[in-house]
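Bench notes, afternoon.
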Amino acid sequence: MTRLSAIAITLLAANLYAAPGTALAQERFPVKPVRMIVSVAAGSPTDVVLRMAGQELLPRLGQPLIMDNRPGGAVTVGAEVCARAAPDGYTYCAVTNATMSINPHIYSKLGYDPERDFKAVTPLWYLIQGLIASGTLPAKNGRELREIASARPDALNFGTLGIGTGGDVYRQWLNEQWKTNIAGIPYKGANLIMNALISGEIQLSRIALGSIGGQLKADRIKLLAIFSSKRSRLFPEVPTVAEVGLDGFTEKVWWGLLAPAGSPDPMVRRINAEFSRLLRDPKFVEYLDSQLLEPAVMTPEEFAAFLKEDRENAGAMVKRFNVPRQ
C-alpha cells in the first residue's frame, strides 16, 4: 500500500466515525431535543403557536422542541443568547422584525450583529395586529380616539415591547399624525400588555389579535381597527386601518427562525423543510388563521435576502420618524 493510499483510508475512516456535528451526525438529525429560544414571555401569542408547532412536528422530527423563553430588552435578549450558543444545529431562535430589522438602527451597543451572528433558517408567519383600547377608554372608534388624543395631548399612554419596537414606532407615528404626545409604556410580553389594557393601566396598544376574543366579548378591551388589507372573518364589524384613515404606516410584523452562525447547513435545511411543510398543511393553516396569523414560507436563501431588504426598509422608517438612538 502506498503512503497516499494509507492517508486516503485514514481520512475515510475519520469521516465514517465522525463526532457529533459532522456529516454522519447530521444525517441522523435530530438525535436529541432541539432548543428553541423565544424572544417573548411564555403565554404570548407567538410562544403559544410555536408550542403547537412543536407538537405537530414531534412525530416527524422524533424529538421535541424545547422552548427557552428569553423576554425583555426590546426583544434583544433572546437574540443575544442565540448568537452566543454553540452552532451545533440544535439551537434555533424565534425572532421578530424588531429584533433583526429595527433594533440594529436603534441601539448603539447591540449584543449581536444581525448579519454576522446568525444563519437564516425560515420565516414563520406575519402577525395580523389591531389597534386596541382599554374598555375604560371612552373612544368607540378611530375618529373618537383621535378627538380624545387631540383634546388632551398628554393624557394617553401606549403599551409597547420597548423603545424602537414596531408598536413604539407606531405610537410615534400616531403622535406625528395627530400632533399629540401619547406616552410609551414598555412591557416584556404581549400578554403583559393585554393585562395592562384590561386593568386600565394603559389605554392603547398595537398587538397581535390571536387571543383577544374572550376579552372583547366581556367588553374589557375594544378593537378599534385591524392592520390588514381586508376585514377579518373573525371580526367582520371591525374596520381596517385604511378605513379609519390610518393606513400610512407600512411596517409589517413577522416572526422567523434563525440559527447561530456556523450551524450545519443540512440541519438548517431539515428544520426549514419541516416548518415549510407544516406551514402548508391545511389544518395548521386553518389553526394559524384562527390565531390571526398569515403563514410565510421561504428557502433559507430567500429568507436571508428578505432579512437584508427588511432591515434596509426599517432603517429608512427609523430615519423618517426620528426614532432616538439608544
